[in-house]
Amino acid sequence: MKTWSEVGEIQPLASKIITNSIKKDRISHAYLLHGARGTGKEAIAVLLAKVLFCTNRSGVDPCLECNACRRIESGNHPDVHFLEPDGQSIKKEQIEHLQKEFAYSGMESSQKVYIIKGADTLTVNAANRILKFLEEPSRKTTAIMMTENSQSIIPTIRSRCQIIDLQPLNPKAFQQKLMDSGIQRQSAILLSAMTNNLDDAIALNGDEWFAQARKLMIQLVEMVSKKPDEVFLFIHNQWMPHFKDRDQHEQGLDLLLLAFKDILYFHIGKEEAMVTLDKDDEKAESFGMVFSQERLLRILHTLLDAKRKIKQNVNPTLVMEQLTVQIQR
């Protein structure tokens, strides 16, 4: 997305709010862009930074051709600072380094922009340190924070930002884009449930690791329904060797969430919402006979709790062992 018109095609409200601020010369000192992955957070942040630095801006859009625009696009502008999680979180030391930059005037202008990715991962100490900047805003300093979970950000930070809520992309339109890219319909439906990012979805579709992950997901559900005594061994012998890092573990849990949701949808007659199972697949009916609605709701709650623990850096093996015990009850 290179212009606010392009932003407006998928995020009309966000585009209207920000362009109105640009027209009135009332750009906020701090924004919090909240939305799922693929909803355009980073593109909006970079576009806003270009607006602030562009030397040939016409109206609300940057020219995209001047030295400042090109350097921001490449991530090499000395007065535009990107900050992202170091591992699982944004740490106090990263904010201390950023605060040192606050003390200096801009290298090429008096304007500074800080773009903070994954703002919900700020540690408590880091969050408290960033408050100093937000409580004492400089007219020439703009912070743009991005998050998929604004409720995980402390209220004192949220209250000092203009919050821009980005809407989920239309799943049907996204699925059609995937099918136009040559992806089969059922795979497009599943991929649209996994990500809103077109490039990520296309990459997953051609990824042998992800194809095997889908197979393991179905096998695990079958194990739970038909051979519960063997689930623990399956987790250790097949699941854990395949899902190695935390991102992969999250994807595995996402697949399981979708699978058990599908069985629940089958129960309540919402087969059109199913993404991992086909409504005419015999598996859907057999799973529906094994799992009651009450048990499915309990399993879904357990899976969400497992995802939360993975995000909190709990040992993945321990998380999966506990999950195995809980879903067999």
TrEMBL record:
InterPro entries: DNA_pol_HolB, DNA_pol_III_delta_C, DNA_Rep/Repair_Clamp_Loader, P-loop_NTPase. Keywords: DNA replication, DNA-directed DNA polymerase, Nucleotidyltransferase, Transferase. Coiled coil: none annotated. The keyword DNA damage does not apply. SUPFAM superfamilies: P-loop containing nucleoside triphosphate hydrolases. Residues 240-327 form the DNA polymerase III delta subunit C-terminal domain. The keyword Nucleotidyltransferase applies. It is an enzyme of class 2 (transferase). Its EC number is 2.7.7.7. It catalyses: DNA(n) + a 2'-deoxyribonucleoside 5'-triphosphate = DNA(n+1) + diphosphate. GO terms for molecular function: DNA-directed DNA polymerase activity. This is DNA polymerase III subunit delta'. It comes from Virgibacillus kekensis. The lineage of its organism: Bacteria, Bacillati, Bacillota, Bacilli, Bacillales.
